[in-house]
Amino acid sequence: MITPVSLLNPEAFLSPLAIDEAVYRALDEDLGRAGDITSIATIPEATPARARMIARQAGVIAGLPLAVATFQKLSPDIKIDAHIRDGAQIAAGTHVLKISGPARAVLSGERTALNFVGRLSGIATLTSDYVRHTAGTNLRICCTRKTTPGLRALEKYAVRCGGGFNHRFGLDDAILIKDNHIAVAGGVRPVLERARAHTGHLVKIEIEVDTLAQLREVLDTGLADVVLLDNMDIATLTEAVTLARGRVVLEASGGVTQTSIAMIAATGVDYVSSGALTHSASNFDVALDIEA
Question: Which of 50, 52, 98, 111 is catalytic?
């Protein structure tokens, strides 16, 4: 029997609890107070159906565990067959799932299942394209916290399916000092001294700079683990790498595109973070076709 967990990408983690929570919330949103009144009105209860979920474009698939969970929660009699897992590179026309069971359940779960697969496959596919442009370098492309409220765990999982990496998941798992923190705290050295005095030995400290002068100031303190180089052009990024000489991990961010990512990678920075991976990914074209 196909289970949601069996279709997870083995190179990425997504909690079964997160899957259940997201599916319950989405089904509740769609079924409302009266259920699928169209299917109830037009389809006799005992009617069976068979359907195929088909990718209408090439890309990287993600979200299959959520689609499976959607159908299985609507009926214990749903049967699903799958020959691929999340993270697979697929061609247009690939049959990603075969579903059979009560027609009402299949039709009621159709849009929710497609929404999950379309959204997450779009993120995975876009991430894969960014990663492709960094081939031959040691650069890692990361997502940010610019995610859909309530869907962060799912969207960051999709980034991993596409070959990318995750930045922090929330405000509680790493210190990232931004320009506004520096302004309120009174400067680079004061804010880093306070952060270092407060932080446990397992928590990294990253600070954002937007000039080489600020980078020099950070390096002089010796208190940061990572420096985020914000909205710097290629020449400035290259100079920053030379200036740092491996003393800190360098992350570039701001205005990163599929056109610029290769040039950024060539500068020698260690990481690039891009909110576009999650907030600007196009929906992946996937459909559910009922077999006559």
Answer: 111
